[in-house]
Specification:
About 5% of the residues lie in helices and about 30% in strands. The protein is mainly β. Strand 19 and strand 20 form a beta hairpin. It is globular.
Length: about 270
């Protein structure tokens, strides 16, 4: 409860709390092994990806994922036209390596996405088996994507359900893709399940956990995500654990809690508060 003091009297109100993510949370690790050397500069710039699997077994990445018209139309609401085209129209950028009906109007070919996860993004898992984590993901063909609300169902408010495309250089610095596009993609699957090797992920510390914020100890019992920032749910308040709210910001206010993986470059919008 917060008390605001005015000349006319005191007003009490409840401060809105962030929702706790009810899954095991982590960050997909960067893979710096695969790089394309720039002919002119000698630097390496490549889009970031980690293979995902249809089954919890060591194997090449899973089968391609057919993506519905509903997802295409919904994702168009979440980014600019050029970013949307980079995401799902132009082949051989990242998510899609084949031409589809969205690229060629004379074609009837449905888009087929690569079975990949995007490093430096948050990931939610609901079970573990054989050294793999089962990812919380929506159906790529049958989920009613157009029933979602773009004001709340997006990367900023639900970053474990929407990932951001990035590139990296030799040193692991992270860049936006294309011409500095903010490109987002839903976390989806076509098969009944989709998995990632557990060691491809930096998992958040187990809870409950005691952290120190502004000189006071707080017991964290859940994790809350907003954009690239992480908060811990405590009885009194949401404790900032990692703050990445604007380009270049990276703060870990509690000395007991830190992530090694870097955040994706954040997009700042007036409505994302």
């Amino acid at each position: 409860m917060i008390i605001a003091h005015f000349q006319s009297g005191d007003v009490q109100y409840e401060k809105k709390r962030l929702p706790v993510v009810p899954y095991t949370i982590g960050v997909i690790k960067q893979d710096l092994r695969d790089s394309e050397i720039g002919a002119d500069t000698g630097t390496s710039i490549t889009v970031q990806a980690r293979k995902l699997n249809d089954t919890p077994k060591i194997a090449p990445k899973g089968d391609v994922i057919v993506v519905s018209d509903a997802w295409y139309l919904y994702m168009k609401k979440l980014m600019t036209q050029k970013a949307w085209e980079w995401w799902g129209v132009w082949p051989r950028m990242l998510m899609i390596n084949r031409e589809s009906k969205w690229y060629d109007e004379t074609s009837t070919e449905m888009p087929k996405f690569e079975c990949i996860g995007l490093p430096n993004n948050f990931l939610a898992a609901d079970s573990f088996v054989n050294g793999f984590a089962r990812i919380v993901a929506r159906d790529s063909k049958n989920f009613p994507a157009l029933s979602l609300d773009p004001k709340t169902d997006n990367w900023f408010y639900r970053p474990w359900e929407f990932h951001k495309a990035t590139a990296h250089d030799d040193a692991g610095n992270i860049w936006l893709v294309g011409q500095s596009f903010h490109v987002y993609t839903p976390v989806i699957r076509e098969e009944p399940e989709i998995f990632i090797q557990a060691d491809f992920v930096e998992w958040f510390p187990s809870l409950p956990m005691t952290v120190t914020y502004q000189g006071k100890a707080h017991v964290i019992t859940g994790y809350c995500l907003q954009g690239a920032s992480v908060y811990g749910h405590a009885e009194e308040m949401d404790i900032p654990l990692r703050l990445a709210r604007k380009p270049g910001e990276l703060l870990h206010p509690c000395p007991e809690w830190k992530l090694n993986e870097k955040p994706v470059p954040v997009e700042v919008r007036p409505e994302w508060v």
